[in-house]
Amino acid sequence: MNNPIALVTGASRGLGRALAAGLAREGYALITDARNAADLDAAADGIRAAGGTVTAVAGDVTDPVHRATLQRAAQAAGRLDLLVNNAGTLGASPLPALADYPADELRAAFEANVIAPIALTQLALPLLRASGGAVLNITSDAAVEAYTGWGGYGAAKAALEQASNVLAAEEPTVRVWWADPGDLRTDMHQLAFPGEDISDRPEPSSVVPAFLRLVMQRLPSGRYRAAHLMPSAPVTS
């Protein structure tokens, strides 16, 4: 297969689904993952109907067995050019103050948002090094701003950002990006604001051109905001 290969986690809905479709349009063959098999298959079918190539592997990225299955899928494809660590969790909802944050839910948030993407990256690195590939970790402004109620999610994303920063220093042949898409109209964002109308937030597809610019132009490793990556905007890392 001559197409570049991208592994996109959390690709059944929201930003992951939109990013997977955008990468397919740019010629990437895909390996996708999500916990809900029916939603993942529906998303994959949509990409195939548009002419794309997808291997959909349902499962939870916090499960080491599932991560190993994703690694084997990439090995079977013969290469890996891009890993998109998009899957994650908001954590407790409604958003609690840190003083009241249940420890088990905080632990689960770190498992999904920090441990799982790092562990999957470790498995993917041999193939990414061989191709001179890239890792794209989806982050949030909650990693750098102090928003009331966002302590659990924000702390996890801050940890992912620093891990990304160190990985970029340690892996000079691999691009490492950690990118904030901004507020989007997603199920996760709705969980953060239960019962509220979030229809004023943009659709996930609106920021896909920004992420495609990052990937296709192979910008330097670093932290980016989607708003600064839109094709008409100057690049600001």
The succession of helices and strands, N to C, reads: EHEHEHEHEHEHHE
Main sheet characteristics: 7 strands, parallel
The total strand number stands at 7
Uncertain segments are none
Structural class: alpha/beta
End-to-end distance, in Å? 33 Å
What is the radius of gyration computed over CA atoms, rounded to a whole number of angstroms? Answer: 17 Å
Shape: globular
Helix segment tally: 7
Feature tags:
single chain, 237 residues, alpha/beta, 7-stranded parallel sheet
Secondary-structure blueprint of this entry?
Blueprint (H helix, E strand, L loop, with lengths): L4 E5 L4 H12 L3 E6 L2 H13 L4 E5 L5 H14 L4 E4 L17 H29 L2 E5 L12 H20 L4 E6 L6 H6 L15 H9 L5 E4 L12
Parallel strand pairs: 1-2, 1-4, 2-3, 4-5, 5-6, 6-7
Helix pairs in contact: 1-7, 3-4, 4-5
Textual characterization of the structure:
- With 237 residues, the protein is an alpha/beta fold.
- It is built from seven helices and seven strands, in the order E-H-E-H-E-H-E-H-E-H-E-H-H-E.
- Strands 3-2-1-4-5-6-7 form a seven-stranded parallel beta sheet, with helices on both faces.
- Strand 4 (82-85), helix 4 and strand 5 form a beta-alpha-beta unit.
- Helix 1 crosses helix 7 (208-216), helix 3 packs parallel to helix 4 (103-131) and helix 4 packs parallel to helix 5.
- It is globular, with a radius of gyration of 17 Å.
